[in-house]
Write a structure and sequence with these properties.
Helix content: 25-40%
CATH architecture: 2-Layer Sandwich
Radius of gyration: 14 Å
Number of helices: 3
Order of helices and strands: EHEEHEH
Distance between the termini: 19 Å
Strand order of the largest sheet: 2-3-1-4
Length: 108
């Protein structure tokens, strides 16, 4: 079951936006859980310039079955032109927790 669970990462401009979008994704079963890390500093290239600024990181627990729907929904809600959406396969973890993620992330 571990290969069915993904850790999806996305950054947001502020905590309020992250909280609002994370709550919607969990409420609508696109993600089983969202952990909000309120303060990260990002340095990145955007439109030919090096940018630096504070962001909020969210760690979402999803499944491979709901990944495509999760990504589409997140893109539709996200304020960035090109939102960061990175999904990493979970190699192992507590079987009970992985089962809980699978049960709480509906594939649409």
């Amino acid at each position: 079951m571990a290969d069915e669970v993904l850790l999806a990462l996305s950054t947001f401009p502020d905590v309020e936006t992250a909280r609002r979008i994370a709550r919607e994704l969990v409420t609508e079963n696109f993600a089983a859980c969202a952990n909000i890390v309120p303060a990260v500093e990002s340095i990145y290239r955007w439109q030919g310039n090096i940018e630096q600024g504070g962001e909020t990181l969210v760690l979402f627990k999803i499944t491979t079955a709901c990944s495509a729907a999760f990504q589409e929904k997140l893109k539709s809600l996200h304020p960035y032109d090109v939102p960061e959406i990175i999904c990493l396969r979970v190699a192992e973890g507590s079987p009970e927790y992985l089962r809980w993620v699978a049960e709480n992330c509906a594939s649409s």
